[in-house]
Amino acid sequence: MSGNYLTAGQLGLLILLLVGVTPVSAQTRTHVVHFSKSATLYALNCAACHGHSGRSSAEFPTLVNRIGYYARSAEGRAYIAQVPGVAMSAISDADLAAMLNWLLKLYSAKQLPADFKDYTGAEVAVLRQVSITPRIRRKELIESMLAAGLIPSATVLEWSP
Predict the structure, then answer these.
(1) Among the residues of 92-148, which ranges form H helices?
(2) Does the residue 161 lie in any domain?
(3) What's the domain range around 151?
(4) Over the Cα atoms of the chain, what is R_g?
(5) Which segments of the chain does DSSP mark as H helices, in order?
(6) How much is the pTM?
(7) What does the buried/exposed string (b/e) look like for 71-100 if buried means 16 or more CB atoms within 10 Å of the residue's CB?
(8) Domain count across the chain
């Protein structure tokens, strides 16, 4: 099987290409890759675990049609920014806020509350300072959100690796 592996750079480029390629003109064969900064940050920092389309392997929670449910409560909104992979990333607070807003609207818009307000860099700076244990915090959130009628059932957010 030697020679059948992608380098990290090749894998990153492949992920970027899978996220989207915008043709310059339908009449040419030339393509220019246009990515928002948020899409690029997701591809480089999150897609390896959560998948280029937000649908991950069994080891990591799928984001599609799920993550927006968390934004229905202040505690859930905080949780999104406090998950270790988010909170400890090297992405700036402002860029992380923009990426979270992009991700929520792209992968889970229907689950967002009608009054959803974008994350701000200042908000993310405060939220990401709190250390959590994701499995325990997620269980607490599911219970409280279910009791408050913020999610239709516990199964929409349950996940076990």
Answers:
(1) 93-108, 121-127, 134-147
(2) no
(3) 8-156
(4) 17
(5) 8-19, 37-45, 47-50, 67-70, 74-82, 84-87, 93-108, 121-127, 134-147
(6) 0.68
(7) bbbeebbbbbbbbeebbebebebebbbbbb
(8) 1
| Proportion of the chain above pLDDT 90, given as a percent | 44
CA distance 105 to 43: 16
Asked if residue 30 belongs to a domain, the reply is yes
Q: Between 15 and 157, whose confidence is greater?
A: 157
Higher-pLDDT residue of 159 and 66 is: 66
* Residue 96 domain-assigned (yes or no): yes
**Does residue 130 form part of some domain?**
yes
What CATH number is associated with residue 73? 1.10.760.10
pLDDT in tens, 76-98: 999 999 988 888 888 899 999 99
